[in-house]
Each structure stands twice: as structure tokens, then as C-alpha cells.
Amino acid sequence: MRTCIATRQVLPEKVLLRCVASHRPDGTVVILPDPRRRSPGRGAWISPTVDAWETAVSRRAFSRALRVPADADPGPVRDYIGHIGRDHPRQAERTEH
Question: Where do the segments described as Disordered lie (predicted)?
Fold first, then answer.
């Protein structure tokens, strides 16, 4: 069981998306989706919905959970959520049980 950083709901890992921080060569920080849950480092868990992503961004939940600067780019997570929602609509809806 994990807690979604946006909704604060405690849910099974299989319905949440793990995200990790990565440092780019130019020194900026980017938040990346980790659907296989194998990337090293601290992880943050989020419901894979656009609404949850927007809530997490507005509350700066990614930077707080991952202990990275507030200007870290969460865009790749949004892109991934949009991709799974478009290609696998059932997976994007799993958090609404």
C-alpha cells in the first residue's frame, strides 16, 4: 500500500504510478515516470490521472516528496499519463474503484 502524493489516498502499488527525480547534464532536475518500479532512488507515488498530476503540481508535491527543487520539471509524468490514458483507458481509470 502506498499513498498518492496528490489525493493522499492509500492505494495498492499496482494502481499507482511511481515517479523518480533525475538530474539532466545541464544541472536541471526532471521528474520521470517509473512504471516498472525499478529506477534507483527515492520514489513518489501518484494516481495516474491528469487531475491528480495537476493537483500534485499545484501543491508542489513532487518536489516535497522527492526532496528536489521546486522548479523540477514534472512534464514527462504528464506526458506518460496522457499516453497511458489514450492507449490504455482501463489502466488510467483503475484508481477510481
Answer: 73-97
